[in-house]
Amino acid sequence: MIVYWIVLLIIAFLAYCIGSISTLRVASRFVFRRNLRRLGTGSAWISNFRRLYGWWGFARLLLTEAVKDLIPILIGAGLLAVKHHAAVGAAFGGYCMLVGRLWPAFNSFRGTHHGCVALVVAALSVDFSLGVTVAVVMLAVIFLTRYLSAGAVAGAAIMIVTALLVVDDRLTMLISVFSACLVILYHIPALLRLSRGKEERISFEEDITYKLDEKF
Q1: Segment 174-188 mean pLDDT
Q2: Which of 40, 59, 75, 156 could form a disulfide bond with 44, CB atoms 3.0-4.6 angstroms apart?
Q3: Cα-based distances in Å from 70 to 41, 88, 148, 202
Q4: pTM score of the predicted model
């Protein structure tokens, strides 16, 4: 039993630390070879990134994030596989990774991320149908409302309902539900801004304002 708890502590530490690492830092260093953090914040960051790298660039960034978020899940599954609890290890690794994504130690515990990709990766690691359901609902809400926060909360809500229905192992199901609750808890301030009409929307329109800076 003591060994089991030590393994859980190791998973929690590694998953949280990996989750706390900024995807922008990783992508800047190893994928795009450019400091992406200089592109701005909020919608300005999204507009600038799309202007420079297009949708293929977004796909590369999302893939970088998904791979990084998958690492602690694989660690959790691998370490608990020796106890024949790989599914629990994957779910627990995903939970601790989400804590790091939302409250990163390397950024003074101030999260700047909605956790959308991390939540989908965590859900897929538990059950394929669960992950697909979360991804479809999340993308649909983001596309219809243009609010990342609304999509994250909707994905987390459907994850709770679906996990209760499709995940057989009770402990794995509970960890999945707690993971989704983390995302909802994190987005309470965003939901309050939404209710006041002050939440920032994302735009799928092509940004051409940079052309005003060109010299004719």
Answers
A1: 94
A2: 40
A3: 25, 15, 21, 26
A4: 0.82
Mean pLDDT of all residues in 127-136: 95
Tokens of 117: 């990709």
pLDDT tens digits, one per residue of 183-213: 999 999 988 988 888 887 776 555 444 444 4
Cα gap 185→135, rounded to integer Å: 19
Q: Which residue has the tokens 């939540």?
A: 119
- Binned at pLDDT 50, 70 and 90, residue 175 comes out as very high
The label of the residue with tokens 């060994």 reads 3
CB-based contact 179:119 (threshold 8 Å): yes
120 and 155 in contact (C-beta within 8 Å)?
Answer: yes
Closest CA to 208 of 31, 46, 78, 47: 47
Task: Provide DSSP, 120-134.
Answer: HHHHHHH-HHHHHHH
Handedness of CA 162, 70, 49, 101 (dihedral sign): positive
SS3 14: helix
Taking alpha carbons only, the member of 75, 58, 89, 54 closest to residue 169 is 89
Residue 51 confidence (pLDDT): 72
The domains of the chain are located at 2-204
Return the pLDDT at 133. Answer: 96
CA torsion 10-15-20-25 (nearest 10°) is: 110
Phi and psi at residue 204, to the nearest 5°: -95, 5
